[in-house]
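agent> Task received from the user: take the single chain below, predict its 3D structure, and emit structure tokens. No templates, no multimer pairing.
agent> Plan: (1) validate residues, (2) run structure prediction, (3) serialize to tokens, (4) report one or two observations.
agent> Step 1 OK, no nonstandard residues flagged.
tool_call: predict_structure(input=
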Amino acid sequence: GYILPCKLLGYIPFKEIKVTPADDQEIYVSGSTIGIYMQTEGVLVIDTGEIQNRNGETEEPARNIIRQGDYIISFNGEKISTKRELIDDISELDGSEVTLGISRKGESIPVSVTPVKDKKGDYKLGIWVRDDTQGIGTLTYVDQNGNYGALGHGISDIDTAQLLNIRNGALYKARILAINKGSKGNPGELAGYICYDDRNILGTIEANSRNGIYGQFTGIADDAITLKKMPAAYKQDVKIGTATILCSTDGEVKEYDAEIRKIDLNHEDTNKSFVIKVTDKELLEATGGIVQGLSGSPVIQNGKIIG
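)
tool_result: status=success, residues=307
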């Protein structure tokens, strides 16, 4: 790169701009439906709850100790990764206080909880937990090195609304079975089937970020996945006006008409840099617009992918 000096009226220096030359980039654009499965980094606490003890009284042992959105990463000093491991450890409790290692907002802290014996005689901690999630989305692109981007937004837990910390995950082939059409106040969704079989794995999930999920694509372009080579636009290439969306509602990727209504290149959230409106009658008739499951659908303008 190099520094470009800027002068007011051609004489008065007022700032310098760093310029970095870049080659045009081509990527493989998709729009195919994919299945998503992810495991969390630790066991996610989605809530705490009350336990009715043997005397018929209610207790809440984890209240104000463990918080919604915490990740349990150890149990009495032993690392745990799954809900099954946590359940096995809890089944061996004898009423003694336990120490849980908690990851809270990136900070690791120990907390102590005294279990309560319930009406059946089992010891419980009074927490609701989850260690995985799954769903359907859209593959956006694969680059020349096999790195992919999908979904266009991060995956958050349905109960805590927090972006999930993931341990690992995979993309799978998926099949659309039905469309729940969207309407005002109802986002609608694609209802599908994910084939959880090693032969149907399309790639790894290595990052879950605000702008989507990313990883290595290991599948091939076949009847389940469409990949079309296309240049990637620079942000200054995006214009108000006609555009298209690549997506699949019936197993086949099609190009549907849309319109860029507003552009804000300086928005802090890069997922809100332009406003798009679906105008294609066929897509509107089928889905009512953008529905859950179409997240990640490539947006095309003037022969380039713009988002």
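agent> Step 4: summary for the user.
Residues 25-40+133-307 form a domain with the Thrombin, subunit H fold (CATH 2.40.10).
agent> Done.
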